[in-house]
Specification:
heterodimer; A: mainly alpha; 6 helices; elongated; B: mainly alpha; Four Helix Bundle (Hemerythrin (Met), subunit A); 3 domains; 2% strand; membrane (chain A)
Chain lengths: 128, 777
Amino acid sequence: MPSVILRTSARPLLALMLVFSLYLLLRGHNAPGGGFIGGLFAASGFAVYAIAFGRRAAEAALRFTPKAVLGAGLLLALVSGLPAFLLGEPFLTHLWWSVLSTALVFDVGVYLTVVGAVCAFLFELTEE
Amino acid sequence: MPFTALAIAAAIAAAAPLLLITRLPPAVRGWAAAAVPFALFVGFATMLPGVAAGSIPTDVMRWVPSLGVELAFRVDGLSLLMALLITGIGAGVFAFSGRYLAGHPRQGRFLAVLALFMAAMLGTVTSDHLIALFVFWELTSLTSFLLIGFKGESERARAAALQALLVTGAGGLMLLAAALLLGQAAGTFRLSEIIAAGPALTEHPLAPAILVLLILAAFTKSAQAPLHFWLPNAMEAPTPVSAYLHSATMVKLGVYLLARFNPVFGGEELWTGALVTAGTATMLVGALLALRETDLKRVLAYSTVVALGTLVMLLGLQDPIAATAAMTFLIVHALYKASLFLVAGIIDHETGTRDATRLGGLARSMPVTAVVALAAGLSMAGLPPFVGFVGKELLYEAKLTHPVAPLLLVGAGVLANAAMVVVGGILSVRAFLGTPRGLETTPHDPPPEMLAGPAALAAGGVLFGLLPGTLGGWLVEPAVSAVMGSAAMGSATPAPLALWHGFTPVLGLSVLTLALGIAVFLRWEPLRRRMERWHLLDRHGPERGYTVALGGFQWLAAWQTRLIQPGSLRVYATVTLAVIAAATAAPMLFGGGIAVPAGWLDLTVYEAGAALLLMAGAVAAVVARGMLAGIMAVGVVGFGSALVFLLFGAPDLAFTQFAVEVLFIVILTAVLLKLPLREPEHRTRGQRRTDAALAVGVGSVGALVMLAVLASPFDPTLGAWFGAASVPEAHGRNVVNVIIVDFRALDTLGEITVLGLAGLAALAILKRRPQAPQGGA
């Protein structure tokens, strides 16, 4: 049985780490951060949660299966390269509209893939 | 407007909403599912006048220009003919499946895969780039695998799906090899440029290899004897799949490939010889085996084998009449065969059986279906005024004009076509007009969306039969000019299509075929029973070869796996590390690679501190007694590395290292909870010495490599370029992230694909299986 401290702190920790991971993801293009690191931080949050409350609870907290998350990530990354074709540019040429860009979509794809892949390992290895 | 690329994209995009089709009421699903294929059919049909007039719409999109990879689509007469078959028959099949599988919980997935298949088919027949052609070709094999194995709970379906994948997948690998060699020999991967170069390519030393590989790829896909056996087995798939993939479109891809490369290799004797021989053999084998079966679908499958053999044989004849016959028969066969398959599906749906010996007199209860079946069946039998008659007349004409062995070809043709008469008769005349044979259920005509496809196809057979000139001018002639190459077409005009040629030898052959067919049809049942007893065919046929080869391959795989994968982590680690160390050390020692940069020991206090931390962690990991302490010590090494990254101005790397390290420890701890925390030492003293020596060796080699790298002058070109281009070209000041998501985005896409696959593999391997009841605590 995990300690009271862990069980008390896991929930706010998960929320904090998710927020922080999103912060890392969004600032990544101009400052240290990005999809890879953000994804790893988010996955760490779920790891702490899984240890505190067990696998079933962590799966519920993720809402989607790891398989779906990583699949969505790969799909997003792939799709982000397609709009370039409309302008006659090569695949994965990113387009920008002030701060929004297909590069961000790509990075979100990286983020989700990392979260999904790490959670796939994590949940299968965590005891109920 | 790049219509072809948009059409393929639309077919792929249609897969997602189709997944949700089960939310619609069953009565509208068919129409909803058919919307996209039908729209694409109309779109391609609008290209007909232009293509018939000789224009060839081409779209080129840059894909990875730095690697010379591009997406190029080109729609000439042959491509357009195929695209129209794919989308037109597709519309009928989608409408049919919307109702046919309405009771199936995975109907959405079925239709989604079918849409992906359609996209892959369109890609294959319109690609003007060899690599893209290969990729789309393989996607058709993959979707075919998923569709044959759709009823995955049936072992026969799984085996048939695997068999089809292995046979056509082997052919796909040959196509890849052929594509690479072709690209090398021709200096371009663009199909149109290769075709334009024409027979000049056959002078290249690689040409014979290319030729053989292309032929083998085509023969596996188009089920030529002796590789025909996967096709009848593929009938385990739901009937719409059999109609769409395994009679009308996918199995024609081999024919398409041969037709496409005919302008290049048509002059080679090996090409014509192989095509005529294999095609004729396939015709005869299919005709013989078709008459043994009772399952309507397997009967039809073997008759498809006959048709594919006929097409391949015709392409080998190298004659404008033969090419015209081939393209006409391609259309004719697609029309009647898809229609008959869907009728077989209707019969199955309504009566609950596909056993031809139990069916008869269905016309009374299913009048509309009966009309459709008769129209398609009589077209198959080659009776006027159906288009099947036009096709068969051309077949005989092409064979009669062949200079080498007209009698042999005509003889084989009469036998094969007589078998077609029998099959057409079994499916239409016998099942619908024959004597009723007492079924438990009362069949009815199915709802309109199930009849729409087969009825439209059968109507097309009548319409083209009455207006053969339209068929010829709009569809056949443009395709023939692609098959024969523009040079050959300058001198010869394709044979005109006509319903009535007058009293010619060809008409005599038609009458002979029909008489033979009817004679066999009337005695089909006793004949079939006798042929069924030819067990020799089952015991020594090529399928037996497949089974033996597969078994042998599995034995080989098991043997070599036992040899090099003993399952001991210690052995793996030892071998891997020893090989790495030896392979790195050898060139350094013998090639004079050892170098030490000047002043490598001038450390700041912080650097020395980080180095000490790393060393302390490493030593602690080695001497730690318990598992937990060991993992903590390894963690110290990881955090120490992160510290080094931070000191040398790589915050992103340090960040990632920290996060990975945390996760590593968390996951390991989760695993460790299942293991004894204090594993007793089970290595002998000798083993411990060897391990220590190996560890020191690997570490030393690593250190030497690092020193040598630092000693060589640093080339800042790339770093400077990325630093300068980061903001103006990619709008980002974090160069690391800009490289990941923009400059090297394709690499990243590859990496996260690997990461995703690793995650999926973890799910598959670690997934807890239902556990056996456990004894004890």
